[in-house]
Specification:
Blueprint: H1 12-63, E1 67-72, E2 75-80, E3 93-99, H2 100-103, E4 108-111, E5 115-118, E6 127-132, E7 137-142, E8 149-151
Antiparallel strand pairs: 1-2, 1-5, 2-3, 4-6, 6-7, 7-8
Length: 152
């Protein structure tokens, strides 16, 4: 007959220790992945605005008339100035409407101006769009003199 000390198995203390270690690792992975996902959404939103600014700039150069991004809350529109060359009239043509909140949850948008204009010579009115996810922020800006766009 075998004694109790010769029997093999897992004690309750060992089992609780393993479960506690698994819970700690799972908690760390969950927190880390949530922050990572939020950072990817922030970067994606910045790339979206960057891309649409590039679209407006290239169309302005190609077509020889002003294009702009107009901001309203978390949304913005890419549009041209129409035949009269000024924005805010009924002849403006909307090329694209985007709402950052739809594609990138928990990301907010704010702008130093209500509109960023790109002119036919490639320059722009300048301005900065700030995107924030509550943890980090990114800025997309255009240079007045060159029209270059960059993500900061």
């Amino acid at each position: 007959m075998k004694s109790l000390s010769d029997q093999r198995g897992v004690t309750l203390v060992e089992l609780i220790t393993v479960i506690a270690i698994i819970a700690i690792v799972a908690g760390i992975v969950t927190l880390s992945s949530r922050d990572t996902i939020q950072n990817y959404k922030l970067k994606g939103a910045a790339r979206q605005i960057f891309s649409d600014m590039q679209l407006a700039r290239l169309r302005a150069i190609k077509e020889g008339r002003a294009y702009a991004l107009e901001y309203s809350g978390t949304a913005y529109s890419v549009k041209d100035a129409g035949n009269d060359g000024t924005f805010g009239n009924s002849d403006d043509h909307v090329i694209k409407n985007e709402d950052i909140a739809n594609g990138y949850s928990h990301v907010s948008l704010s702008s130093s101006l209500s509109r960023t204009v790109f002119y036919s010579n490639g320059t722009s009115s300048g301005g900065t769009v700030t995107l924030n996810n509550g943890i980090k922020s990114r800025q997309v800006s255009s240079s007045t003199s060159t029209g270059n766009i960059r993500i900061q």
